[in-house]
Amino acid sequence: MSSDGTSTSFTGVPGPPFWPPAPSDLELVERVTSGDVDAYQTLVERYQYRVYNHAARMLGSTDDAADVTQEVFVKTYTTLNQYRGQASFQTWLYRVTANLCVDRHRRRQRLPHVTRSLDAPLETEAGEVEAEVPDWGADPARVALSGELQAKVHAALAALSDKLRAVIVMYDLDGLSYEEIAGALGIPLGTVKSRLFHARAQLRTLLAPYVSAALET
Amino acid sequence: MDGRRVIQAYLDGRMTAKERRRFEARLATDARLAADLEATRRTVALLQALPPTVPPAGLTARIMAQVRTKPAPLRRASWREAVWAVLQPARLVPLAAVSVALVVLIGGRQPAGDLGPQRRTRPLSQADEKFVSECLADYNLAAADRYKSGTRYEHAGEPRGDAASIY
């Protein structure tokens, strides 16, 4: 807190004067389980972005992701009185999300769908175009993907099994730690490492034309 | 650990400082390992370059509207919590005070020397009193005999100890 009464966060950005600290997840859960439904909205706003993004990566569809996100928060709400705070609320939420994504994916697999080879040329209104290669600059982490490449990466992700995809999405996209993934999926730490290894290896094979092109030149 | 697993440990920051230095030294001389590392790094970079998706507007409102139709998930106290709630000092002190008051009240009404309701309602007859006296006398004689002969209470059913203590 500075001398003028304004608080300063660790990022150095001054905050409003005497702003009360945000309630923790556990405090909000206790308020909800004591009958305060409005407290749940704070939890929804806090986590819907993460849940929605995870579901979108897992299912490859924003419509399905919105449905699953809604389902996740409603299901979590109805069973909130069973939450005892052993794991973090986020881990608990991820567990529900992972299970509902798998359910949704299985239901969808029963429907007929069209698969497409990742190496096949794209068919557009202007005719067939060859697969585009990303422009790897000096820093690979700053690569920008065109719409076509995004589709390729999505397709490669969708080609992984549910188990491998869940781990790689949680680790490389959602930024969860090995330990958090183990808690969310209910699997040992060694299994998390092993699945991440296989997921990356398979993805690397699927995306080989885009990954190795620059290495060969 | 094979090369690719070492790469994973390196990329995920799961190496000690010493392991990291050794790995980086090896990278400088092993072109294949360096290419493997770069390919894995780029695979992860491609994945992380996917733009984030933004939830549709009104999703929170839709969720909350559905949530409000559900019964509130009110928390039920576990048996431990229930016991602990009763054992709180704030509740325990008045409970103890009431218990003491009841004991004093009930104890105060009882006549001194009274052995209880059963004795009051059915007093021993004279024959019973005589029988009890004879039994006691027999027991004392037997005990005295054992004491005189120097034997102790060693047979089953009787407490072990000095026979003299019964007098």
Task: Give an account of the 3D structure.
The complex is a heterodimer of chains A (about 220) and B (about 170). With about 220 residues, chain A is mainly α. In chain A, helix 4 packs across helix 7. Chain A starts with 5 loop residues before the first strand and ends with a helix. The N terminus of chain A is likely disordered. With about 170 residues, chain B is mostly helical. Among the domains of chain B are: about 45 residues, no CATH class; about 40 residues, no CATH class. Chain B has eight helices and no strands. In chain B, helix 1 packs across helix 3. The longest helix of chain B has 23 residues. The two termini of chain B are about 85 Å apart. Chains A and B meet through helix 2, helix 3, helix 5, helix 6 and helix 8 of A and helix 1, helix 3 and helix 4 of B.
Summarize the structure.
The complex is a heterodimer of chains A (217) and B (167). With 217 residues, chain A is mainly alpha-helical. In chain A, 59% of the residues lie in helices and 6% in strands.
From the N-terminal CA to the C-terminal CA of chain A, the straight-line distance is: 54 Å
Count of DSSP strands of chain B: 0
Biggest pleated sheet of chain A: 2 strands, antiparallel
Q: Got a strand count of chain A?
A: 4
Counted by DSSP, the helix tally of chain B is 8
What is the element string of chain B, with H for helices and E for strands?
HHHHHHHH
Given the structure, what is the number of helices of chain A? 10
**CA-atom Rg of chain B in angstroms:** 44 Å
β-strand percent of chain B reads under 5%
Helical proportion of chain A, percent range? 55-70%
Give the strand content of chain A: 5-15%
**Any low-confidence stretches of chain B, pLDDT <50, length ≥5?**
116-120, 152-167
Mean pLDDT of chain A: 81
> Whole-number radius of gyration of chain A?
21 Å
Overall pLDDT level of chain B: 76
Anisotropy-based shape of chain B: elongated
Question: Based on CA inertia axes, which overall geometry of chain A fits?
Answer: globular
- Distance linking N and C termini of chain B: 84 Å
Oligomeric state, counting identical vs distinct chains: heterodimer
